[in-house]
């Protein structure tokens, strides 16, 4: 069995740079997406973002040598993952944005995704249920409760709670996407996998948004909104999803989702500066508690399991399965 430290040294800093660049783009996406849903229906906003991103990714794929190689099996596998990570995730994400502040999403989605990921590993027996890991999960959930109490101090409404439910469902979709993508990447190179999954997900989003397209007053959409759509398609979609796939080739889904702890920093700063959204002290405390709990569950719990030797370290396994 490979030594985890040796596996990490072979991986190098490259995958983590890809993942951190992804999280920077994801953080700014909350603010930019909020601007878009302020002018167009949430389902249309999701379609515009990922439709544009899919076109860019497919163009890049077709421009590469050997792009004519095609496999229905690869399309079906990657497309199935795209239905979770692109269609379902963004359906809930943009629905949440239409009802709740972007700052809520920038905390709920990136912080709860790692917790849900490690919870899935625990339930399937792929990770040991150590005391540190269970304590981290409990602490993370407690922080989430404090965060929602803080929402009440900042103006609690039924629509905001419903929007935060959308964010929670989006976090679950992203956790499932990260776990499933690891298997997809075992047999596909990143650009092809990203293009296929984004394309299929974008088609599903377009089908859902089609009833809203005929009633849209496109002439009323501001130039600044179109600029945000272009940014979302290029940066947080085409580039970010490709970078995420590249990083996920060499690290485990758990490690990949750990980097999402940086998203609240980028997302909150962006939302406060550009949208002027309020952020209460209680929410800050709740977010910090949740982050600490998630880090405890994901990192210290894993080390405890490695010391006891009850489970194979995820990092060593990921290093061997990366193509």
From TrEMBL:
Belongs to the EamA transporter family. This is DMT family transporter. PANTHER family: INNER MEMBRANE TRANSPORTER, S-ADENOSYLMETHIONINE_S-ADENOSYLHOMOCYSTEINE TRANSPORTER. It is found in: Cell membrane. InterPro entries: AA-Vitamin_Transporters, EamA_dom, EmrE-like. Residues 16-148, 162-298 form the EamA domain. It comes from Rugosimonospora acidiphila. The keyword Lipid metabolism does not apply. It is a multi-pass membrane protein. The chain crosses the membrane at residues 12-32, 44-63, 75-95, 107-124, 131-153, 165-181, 193-213, 225-244, 256-275, 281-298. Keywords: Cell membrane, Membrane, Transmembrane, Transmembrane helix.
């Amino acid at each position: 069995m490979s030594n985890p430290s040796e596996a990490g040294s072979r991986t190098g800093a490259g995958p983590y740079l890809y993942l951190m660049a992804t999280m920077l783009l994801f953080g700014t996406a909350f603010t930019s997406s909020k601007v878009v849903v302020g002018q167009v229906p949430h389902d249309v906003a999701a379609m515009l973002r990922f439709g544009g991103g899919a076109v860019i990714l497919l163009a890049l794929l077709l421009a590469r040598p050997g792009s004519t190689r095609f496999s229905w099996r690869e399309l079906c596998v990657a497309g199935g993952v795209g239905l979770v990570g692109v269609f379902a995730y963004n359906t809930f994400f943009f629905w949440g944005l239409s009802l709740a502040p972007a700052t809520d999403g920038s905390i709920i989605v990136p912080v709860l995704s790692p917790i849900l990921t490690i919870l899935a590993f625990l339930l399937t027996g792929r990770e040991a249920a150590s005391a540190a890991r269970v304590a981290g999960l409990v602490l993370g959930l407690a922080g989430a409760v404090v965060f929602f109490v803080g929402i009440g101090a900042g103006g609690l409404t039924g629509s905001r709670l419903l929007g935060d439910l959308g964010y929670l469902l989006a976090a679950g979709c992203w956790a499932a996407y990260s776990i499933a993508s690891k298997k997809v990447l075992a047999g596909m190179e990143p650009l092809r996998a990203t293009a296929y999954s984004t394309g299929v997900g974008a088609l599903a989003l377009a089908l859902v948004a089609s009833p809203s397209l005929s009633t849209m007053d496109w002439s009323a959409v501001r130039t600044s909104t179109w600029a945000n759509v272009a940014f979302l398609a290029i940066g947080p979609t085409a580039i970010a999803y490709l970078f995420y796939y590249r990083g996920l080739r060499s690290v485990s889904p758990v490690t990949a989702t750990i980097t999402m702890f940086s998203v609240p920093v980028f997302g909150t700063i962006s939302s406060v500066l550009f949208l002027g959204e309020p952020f209460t002290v209680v929410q800050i405390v709740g977010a910090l508690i949740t982050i600490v709990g998630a880090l405890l569950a994901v990192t210290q719990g894993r080390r405890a399991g490695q010391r006891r030797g009850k489970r194979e370290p995820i990092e060593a396994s990921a290093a061997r399965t990366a193509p």
